[in-house]
Amino acid sequence: MNIIFKKDTWQEIYYSLRNNKLRTFLTMIGVGWGMFLFVSLLGAAKGMENGFDKLFSGFATNSIFMWAQNTSIPYAGFPKGRQTEIRLSDIDLLEKKIPEIDYISPQNSRGNFGSPPEQMSRNGKTASYTLTGDYPIGNKISEKKLIFGRYINDADVAGNKSVAVIGEEVYKNFFDAKKNENPIGKSFNVKGIFFNVIGVFKVPRNGGGMNNDQTVFIPLSTYTKMYNDGDKVGFFAIVSKPEADLKIVEENAKSVLKEKYNVSPEDTNAFGSFNLGKEFGKLTGFLTGMQLLTIIVGSLTILAGVIAISNILLITVKERTKEIGIRRALGAKPAEVRNQILLESVVITLVSGILGFILGIMLLMILNIMTQNQDEFPFYNPTVDYSDVFSAMAIMVVLGLVIGMIPAQRAVKIRPIEALRSE
Fold first, then answer.
1. DSSP symbol at 37
2. One domain, residues 155 and 287
């Protein structure tokens, strides 16, 4: 296709586009807008995906939360409405019976699930906050962002130590946050017991999963002694192995507990649960659907723009009938005329696509700057996979060639004598 390397070819394309500035501009808008939509929407969808990944970072999304409720069916001599329970000893039983379980984290809490918060005090200041007994493994379920110190460890649990990891709001109330006072090793009072602060955690403004900054975490062993709970547990966070089906793990865990505590297999109320993995899967599916919809909308818009280019070129061919006739009369071959029109179609398509791509990338850069430090909004680092963009660009050029064949073939069919007679 040596026509591409001829200076006259490009001069003719330039003069043709320059003489029809408005028409060329309006034609290019269609393809450019399609590519702009494709890039910006695909990048925005990726930004949302990155935002939710950031929101759930440090959080075990393949988790099931399970707690005890009341029975709804009489069974084995026990009446309806009996209060069930879960205990620390159930952890070994569940892990033994269900090999798909990776680990289980137990927790007890005051100030959650309708229970009143616990009153705490320091240096004359008194306030009520959520008090939670936890194991070190609990930090794997929902990782705390520590701004001072450390989290609870195994030695704290084994020694029933009076240590606490406090939320940022608790820290601001009991300590001089304006002077960045280090609270590590300093104490506050809960139910007449002085707890030494070993860590302070901060919760992002977007919520940070399960945690809030008005919570105090202490060793679960210390918590159970304070409230004489024995080995009773408020709830389990059950984390499955990556390849496991969370729904089956959830059903099997309930079945094991029902068998142990003499609950009817048909009782759906005895143990409550929340399948985080299932809900996270819905979110992932939604984001995937958004990306697919973006690709479809962008592709159809690009196609509509390319078709518009074909229509414009048909009009151009009609207006240049006499010119084409003169070229044919001077010895221009049909292939040269056809290639000229096709090249014009590709140039318009490619330039429009590149402009749309540049504008889309600029918009994503602006969005990234605007949302960079907005933790409360699940949007982060909007990017596009350049292979997707280049693939779209290649398809766009091919479509430009294919659809450009219509006006090109019409130009080839023009007979020199008829063309010269046309007005």
1. H
2. no
